[in-house]
Amino acid sequence: MKSTTRRLRTRLGVTFVASVTLLTFTGSPQAAAPVLGRTATAAELTDATLGYRADSRADGFVAGATAAPPYTKLWSRDFGTVVSAPVAIGDKVYAVVNADDGTEGGPRMMLVGVQAATGKDLWPAVSLEQNEPQAGVSYGGGLLYTQTSRGTIAAWDPATGLQKWSVTIGSASMQYPPVWYDGLLYLQDGRGTALALRADTGTRAWTASLSEWSWAPTVVDASGVWIGFDSIAWHHLDLKTGAELHRFHVPDVWGAYGNPVVLGAGAAWVRSSDSDDETVTAYSQKSGVAVRKLPADATPVFGPGRVYTAHRGKVSALSTSTYKAAWTYTSSVNAATVRLVAHGYVYVEDADGRLVVLDQTTGKVAWSYRRYPAPPPTSNFVAEDDGRGFVVPGIATSKARLFVPGAEGTLIAFRKG
Q1: How far apart are CA 32 and CA 21, in angstroms?
Q2: Which regions of the chain are under pLDDT 70?
Q3: What are the tens digits of pLDDT across the range 323-355?
Q4: Alpha-carbon span 54 to 340, nearest angstrom
Q5: Whole-number Å distance between alpha carbons of 385 and 368
Q6: Structure confidence by residue, pLDDT tens digits, 364-407
Q7: Which of 33, 118, 261, 363 is the most exposed place for a label (fewest CB within 10 A)?
């Protein structure tokens, strides 16, 4: 047995180095197969979108991405009413869909998996237990993970669609899929409890009490587990035990719905949705001290040396050293959200119904696609409301392809060139 070191990926200017152990067996022609759920696979380490806001940090950055505009449509599939933020790994793409075509009187939540190049099914779509809305899907350690709003968490084999395990959390109120990190699955039940499950079996590793109820997504990095609250507060928990490392609270300020935390530039970023204080504040991950406050009505996204903010339709590319704008993009309806940064491009969901792709250096429009009909001028335009509908929104990229949920429950695939 020997060990070698490989340079695996670069994120925001930091190179991650992993030690890979190579096993050599004598007397046996077969090596033991890895246990799914325990270790990240090569396919998910780079050029992959693992779930809501791309990764466990929720920073929207896809390291090693190869997709680039202009794009050509590959295929389009109609899955019913709505499609969740997709997961894209290698040559496969997965999503949770509401397969109700409008005639069934309620949701029919299904997990689907298709070939990225053709859109053909990998396996027949499978129903999610409890058939509850607000379902979603994420990926890690070679498995898919789904959740329903009432707290059924399940792991699935992405090759076959077969369920590996399922657990139900009592009295849960969940809206976001769990997050895989280093063999554990992190989530919170919306009723004041954070949990870590073993990703290979679903058994509980720990539980921790939270000071408030929260519907926010769980965010994880090497420093720990981060969960935000509507009252501009958040908990920072130990990865292995759930012990509280820090607890922060900003008095008399109200946060965004669900208050999604995003980790970037050494800070935990949290939004206020008060009409008189539409801002995002960066709090030091080490001390909890506020280090930066910026106008924003949508959660920021990060790229190498940049933070991308949106406020009343104005998207700004800010340096994370000077916080001066390199460029701005302005929506015609004064509402926009940045969804991804990948391969030198910034993907903006414009509330006018288009997906707009900007060159990250110049801010110029490189490509756009109309996802939805243009809304009436009298519409109430909302930049970001990720609790709406039956699923959380998002787009995905992998292997020079782009996957975009469209109108009326469609999933559309594009290829580069």
Answers
A1: 13
A2: 1-32, 251-258, 274-275, 386-389
A3: 999 999 999 999 999 999 999 999 999 999 999
A4: 7
A5: 22
A6: 999 999 999 998 988 888 888 765 567 889 999 999 999 999 98
A7: 33
The residue behind tokens 């506020």 is: 290
What number of other Cβ atoms are within 10 A of residue 176's Cβ?
Answer: 28
Using CA of residue 249, residue 253, residue 259, residue 261, what is the dihedral sign? Answer: negative
Instruction: Provide the token pair at 345.
Output: 């491009």
Following CA atoms 264, 393, 175, 196 in sequence, which dihedral angle do they give, to the nearest 10 degrees?
-40
Neighbours of 406 (CB within 10 A): 17
Longest dimension (CA), the chain: 74
Bridge partners for 318 per DSSP: 307, 325
| In contact, 91 and 110? CB cutoff 8 Å | no
Q: HEC states along the chain?
A: CEEEEEEEEEECCEEEEEEEEECCCCCCCCCCCCCCCCCCCHHHCCCCECCCCCCCCCCCEECCCCCCCCEEEEEEEECCCEECCCEEECCEEEEEEECCCCCCCCCCEEEEEEECCCCCECCCCEECHHHCCCCEEEEECCEEEEECCCCEEEEECCCCCCEEEEEECCCCCCCCCCEEECCEEEEECCCCEEEEEECCCCCEEEEEECCCCCCCCCEEECCEEEEEECCCEEEEECCCCCCEEEEEECCCCCECCCCCCEEECCEEEEEEEECCEEEEEEEECCCCCEEEEEECCCCCEEECCEEEEEECCEEEEEECCCCCEEEEEECCCCCEEEEEEECCEEEEEECCCEEEEEECCCCCEEEEEECCCCCCCCCCCCCCCCCCCCCCCCCEEECCEEEEECHHHEEEEEEEC
